[in-house]
Amino acid sequence: MLKINVRKVMEARGIFTPYKFMVKNGFTPTTATKISNGDVEYLRLEYIERLCGLLNCLPNDLFEWSPNDRKEDSPTHPLQAIRKNENSLNLPEILKGLPMDKLRQVEEMLKGMK
User: Fold this and answer.
1) Could you tell me which of 114, 8, 2, 112 has the C-alpha nearest to residue 55?
2) For strand 63-65 and strand 2-4, is the pairing parallel, antiparallel, or unpaired?
3) With contact defined as beta carbons under 8 Å apart, do 62 and 84 qualify?
4) Is pLDDT of 85 > 70?
5) What residues contact residue 52 under an 8 Å CB cut-off, 6+ apart?
């Protein structure tokens, strides 16, 4: 099943109140609630484009997929690239535990990636 999951990208960006962020950036309260809860049956391309621009991500980053049955669980299934991953990115928690010299190394590495 394909689902939207904007929380994982937002948390990676340090945004911990998706609803508030989306309303502040022009989404209606109803739309912001549905998207932030992952409770959408359809999503306008305009919304996907706006979220990608705001979060500096690709559309695939906003979605996750879980196979419905064994047939879909094939390693060659085209949606494997966005398969739901229980080990979500938690940079703030990782960074919190690093000593200062390692944080400086991370900072320099990140500067080089820009």
Assistant:
1) 8
2) antiparallel
3) no
4) no
5) 58, 59, 61, 62
List the beta bridge partners of residue 65.
2, 83
Q: Which amino acid does the sequence have at 73? A: D
Tokens of 20: 């508030």
Report residue 71's pLDDT band, with 50, 70 and 90 as the boundaries: low
CA-based nearest residue to 27, from 57, 5, 2, 48: 48
18 in Cβ contact with 29 (< 8 Å): no
Once rounded to an integer, what is the mean pLDDT over residues 1-15? 88
**What pTM does this model have?**
0.71
- CA–CA distance, 26 with 29 (Å, rounded to integer): 9
Could you give the domains of the chain?
2-85 (1.10.260.40)
Tokens of 4: 């939207």
Q: In one letter, which amino acid is 109?
A: M
Dihedral sign, Cα of residue 47, residue 62, residue 30, residue 24: negative
